[in-house]
């Protein structure tokens, strides 16, 4: 069964400079919790407890976050402040963390290929932490794991986006096999609106079967010399089966400043305040 989840975090986060000059964008806090922790919590909820990060230079803070900080823990041990560490302690207890480096920024496809060292020869999930996905019920990865158990093939999460934004995404075309689930027949990375095969955009949640690694190796670099995961997925769709799933829940594009602020306001009201009320009663 699925156990492993890759987090490609080698990007520079240039849209958040200067904040991301010395700090990974994945460590930017959404209220009191770094962005990447939301993604890791979603993976753990989906039963994926072996977390692998594909990192780059300047990402040490992510390793330190998912590790014990003895000095701090000693300092606040037995005080009323200890409860503020509960959420990250739970994550550290429930999951294992491993790391590998993407030597050069050669695109998301290449970052996933570097992750082969961590996932080996089994199916795995991929989370792009800057897409924050929230749902009242089961999280998006949990929904996708349920589908994987049924179909045993690669699955990408998609959502409808307005035509004028479609050029920012990978876009699919497919045959709807049941409401909200398509068998992919075509996939294009960042098409101009008039060439987009649909308005269904791929967002940062994937389940991939391990044959994707050879397909990535065979994929020539596309725009900007980057190896696109979309191209390898199209090859996989043409040889076998790739599904696109219109998930239940809400996505925030935390890789952009506007999306990050929208997510911050939403999380403050709907996640942080209720959690604090619960903590006060402890
Ligand atoms: P983006 O291009 O959206 O993120 O990559 P970025 O480069 O971090 O941010 P900007 O555009 O400069 O502001 C999407 C995801 O893929 C990872 C990034 O870390 C991000 O999570 N990625 C991308 C890699 O790990 N390696 C790459 O070579 C490219």
From TrEMBL:
Enzyme class: transferase
Gene Ontology biological-process entries: UDP-alpha-D-glucose metabolic process
InterPro entries: GalU_uridylyltTrfase_bac/arc, NTP_transferase_dom, Nucleotide-diphossugar_trans
Entry's family note: Belongs to the UDPGP type 2 family.
A Pfam match: NTP_transferase
Xref: PANTHER family: UTP--GLUCOSE-1-PHOSPHATE URIDYLYLTRANSFERASE (PTHR43197:SF1)
Reaction it catalyzes: alpha-D-glucose 1-phosphate + UTP + H(+) = UDP-alpha-D-glucose + diphosphate
Biological source species: Microbulbifer aggregans
Name recorded for this polypeptide: UTP--glucose-1-phosphate uridylyltransferase
Stated role: May play a role in stationary phase survival.
Domain Nucleotidyl transferase: 10-267
Keywords: Nucleotidyltransferase, Transferase
């Amino acid at each position: 069964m699925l156990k492993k989840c890759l987090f490609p975090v080698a990007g520079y986060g240039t849209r958040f400079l200067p904040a991301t000059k010395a700090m990974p964008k994945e460590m930017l806090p959404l209220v009191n919790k770094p962005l990447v922790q939301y993604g890791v919590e979603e993976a753990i909820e989906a039963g994926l407890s072996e977390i692998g990060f594909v990192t780059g230079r300047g990402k040490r803070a992510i390793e330190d976050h998912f590790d014990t900080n003895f000095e701090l823990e000693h300092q606040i041990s037995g005080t009323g402040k200890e409860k503020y560490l509960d959420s990250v302690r739970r994550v550290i207890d429930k999951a294992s963390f491993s790391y590998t480096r993407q030597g050069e920024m050669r695109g998301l496809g290449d970052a996933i290929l570097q992750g082969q060292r961590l996932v080996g020869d089994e199916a795995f999930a991929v989370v792009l932490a800057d897409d924050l996905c929230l749902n009242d019920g089961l999280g998006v990865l949990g929904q996708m794991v349920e589908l994987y158990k049924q179909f045993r093939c690669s699955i990408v999460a998609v959502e409808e986006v307005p035509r004028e934004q479609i050029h920012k995404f990978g876009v699919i075309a497919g045959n709807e096999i049941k409401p909200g689930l398509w068998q992919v027949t075509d996939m294009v990375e960042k098409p101009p609106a008039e060439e987009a095969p649909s308005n269904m955009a791929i967002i940062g949640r994937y389940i991939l079967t391990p044959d994707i690694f050879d397909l990535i190796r065979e994929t020539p670099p596309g725009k900007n010399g980057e190896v696109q995961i979309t191209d390898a997925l199209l090859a996989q769709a043409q040889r076998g089966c790739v599904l696109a799933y219109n998930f239940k829940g809400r996505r925030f594009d935390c890789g952009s400043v506007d999306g990050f602020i929208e997510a911050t306001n939403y999380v403050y009201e709907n996640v942080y305040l209720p959690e604090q009320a619960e903590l006060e009663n402890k």
